[in-house]
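User: I'm putting together notes for a lab meeting next week and I want to include a structural view of one of the chains we've been expressing. I don't have a solved structure, so I'd like a prediction I can at least talk through. The sequence is below, exactly as it appears in our construct file.
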Amino acid sequence: MKNMEAGLLILRIVTGVIFLAHGADKLLNGMGASAASFGSMGMPDGTAYAVAVIEAVGGLLLILGLLTRVVAGLFALIMLGAIVTVKWQEGLIGGFELDLILMAASIHLALTGSRMLALKKRKKKRSF
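Assistant: Thanks for the context. Below is the predicted structure for the 128-residue chain, given as structure tokens.
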């Protein structure tokens, strides 16, 4: 069980770092370009900003072990959207391979959670 938790911790932190980096990059270095890109794909206004905030804030929350399942579920949906709307036509190699593995990691974390070194408080069992 300890090995499984250690593996989930590594997956949670690495996935969080990747999403935090991508979200921060959008927010700090190219939100205009990201918004234009999303708009050219027919996405509603504000979608790029929502994705950037979810990636940045969600990445930090994942690293800290807060709302892991919820954040990971949102990440999986973002990756599915990226694959379907943009990357699919590029194929697996040089296209959606990173998005696919990030989606798989996010689905895994959404299904299992990750408790090791998480800030989320565990519910204490009451003994009567």
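A couple of points you could mention at the meeting. The mean pLDDT is 92. The helical segments are 2-29, 31-40, 47-64, 68-87, 92-112.

User: Perfect, that's what I needed.
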